[in-house]
Amino acid sequence: MSAVKILHCADLHIGANESFLGEKAAARRIEALMTFERIVDLATENGVKLVLISGDLFDSLKIENIFVKRVIEKVESSKDITFVYCAGNHDPLNYNSPFFDAKLPENFKVLPTNDSVIEVFEGVKVYGRSFAEVLDDGEERFSLEPQENCINSMCIHGEYGFGSAQNPISNDFVINSNMDYIALGHVHQRSEPKKVGNTYIADCGCPEGLGFDELGEKGVYIGEIDKNRCDLQFYKTSKRMHITENIDVSDLNGNMEISEKILSVLKDKYGEEFSENLYKIVLTGEVSEELKINTTELAKRIGEVTYFAKVKDKTSLKFNLDLIKNEMSLKGIFVSKMLEKMENEPENKERLQSALKIGLKAFSGEVPTYED
């Protein structure tokens, strides 16, 4: 029995709307579809025979027909590859699903909502099940036993470990499954393949980040699985990265200098393609009372060069607090009380420092009503 070359992907969430992007949101939805097309091309280029899609191909069941049509067309165009899909919590397999009782290409297999097995080709079987609804409590043990003389993989949407409300996958479940490889979806953060008992298991993460809680490079796993062997490599597929960058703006004078430093840092760190990414810039450091940081202006300036930018001001004002606390004024009393609270409540120091900063700016009449 020879090894089988697979591509493992999950959580494309085609149709998802990053509403914070404003007028770019519609184009960004198309990019998720293009990422799926890029994944299929990667599979073809690398001689993949089996693509495992572990849930949440679509972001919801209210998906435009054009997205479904394009996905099916792309699958159908790659007849030498078999695609096996299990529906996830965002696109469960029920009567609202575009795959429910649909006529699908021969090379596109959708796992039912009960424990099931699909023979992909001789000697290779895929086990698993789809979500039937948006909630799935999971099961203690998979009910089907794998075949000894086959390469047995499982395609399933669920979270490995404890504490998940969505189809939790326990160590016992993995060990008792006796699979050669379990391809997980649901968790958008990639994990390296690891062996639990005699079974390899991995989260491939999402192929395209959908917000600033999904940072950095995103992609898929490609490689060979066999009995007692798993050799998978990460391949980047994301068109853009979501990046949070902390930038110290101490001793800078004015928004022009700050924006120039931000762009210089981003270009040095992320190279020629830095302009393609989405950035959350967090300003840090100590700045003078005279410096008027305008985050709206900065976001606009950075956004003119990059795909998207938002800016958060987390700087602290460079005050002589020891001098101010001794002033016979409301400002002096405020500073004295806040310093005392910080000393007595070290666990709240960061929150109190933020309150002190806003309070001092308020004494100068610099706090807008929306500042948090």
Helix and strand layout, with pairings?
Elements: E1 4-9, H1 25-45, E2 50-53, H2 65-76, E3 82-85, E4 108-110, E5 116-121, E6 124-128, E7 151-157, E8 159-160, E9 168-169, H3 171-177, E10 181-185, E11 194-196, E12 199-203, E13 219-226, E14 229-236, E15 242-248, H4 255-270, E16 278-284, E17 286-287, H5 295-303, E18 308-313, E19 316-317, H6 321-324, H7 330-344, H8 349-363
Parallel strand pairs: 1-2, 2-3, 3-4, 6-7, 7-10, 8-9, 10-12, 15-16, 16-18, 17-19
Antiparallel strand pairs: 1-13, 5-6, 11-12, 13-14
Helix pairs in contact: 1-2, 4-5, 7-8
Radius of gyration: 26 Å
Q: Kindly state the percentage of residues in helix.
A: 25-40%
Q: Hey, roughly how much beta strand do the residues contain?
A: 15-25%
Poorly predicted ranges (pLDDT <50, ≥5 residues)? none
Write the H/E string, N to C.
Answer: EHEHEEEEEEEHEEEEEEHEEHEEHHH
**Morphology call:** elongated
Q: Give the mean pLDDT.
A: 92
Number of continuous helical runs: 8
User: What is the makeup of the main sheet?
Assistant: 6 strands, mixed
* Alpha-beta content class: alpha/beta
Spatially, the strands of the biggest sheet line up as 4-3-2-1-13-14
Instruction: For the record, give the distance between the C-alpha atoms at the N and C termini, rounded to a whole number.
Output: 62 Å
Number of strands: 19
